[in-house]
Automatic annotation (TrEMBL):
Residues covered by the Transcription regulator PadR N-terminal domain: 15-88
Organism: Arcticibacter tournemirensis
Pfam family of the protein (one): PadR
Coiled-coil ranges per UniProt: none
Name recorded for this polypeptide: PadR family transcriptional regulator
Length: 112
């Protein structure tokens, strides 16, 4: 299933929602969680994930911390206070968009 185009606009919302549910996560963990939840249908690449994480960190939506795990430094991402507010806003936007998309696709038989 090719979802790259659709995923691009939803990536930030997906990351925010996962961090809301899991408190803190590292990049690879995020990719694996998305793969697990979607039964392998959606695979996040490092090339899309990390620029989004870095952008959200620069915007003050995410904070980072590092931990030593098996002699390796692991960078964890978590939501800031602003990030907690942003996740609610992004989820409302997504729900509204999905509802409108469903209306459009169900009303036009040529699209189904």
């Amino acid at each position: 299933m090719s979802t790259n185009g659709m995923l691009k606009g939803s990536l930030q919302t997906i990351i925010l929602k996962l961090l809301q549910e899991n408190e803190k996560m590292y990049g690879y963990e995020i990719t694996q969680k998305v793969k697990e939840i979607t039964n392998g249908e959606i695979k996040l690449t490092e090339g899309s994930l990390y620029p989004s994480l870095h952008k959200m960190e620069a915007e003050g939506i995410l904070s980072t911390s590092t931990e030593m795990v098996e002699n390796r430094v692991r960078k964890y991402y978590s939501l800031t206070k602003e990030g907690l507010e942003e996740v609610e806003s992004k989820l409302e936007e997504a729900k509204s968009f999905i509802g409108n998309l469903q209306l459009l696709l169900n009303l036009n038989p040529k699209l189904s």
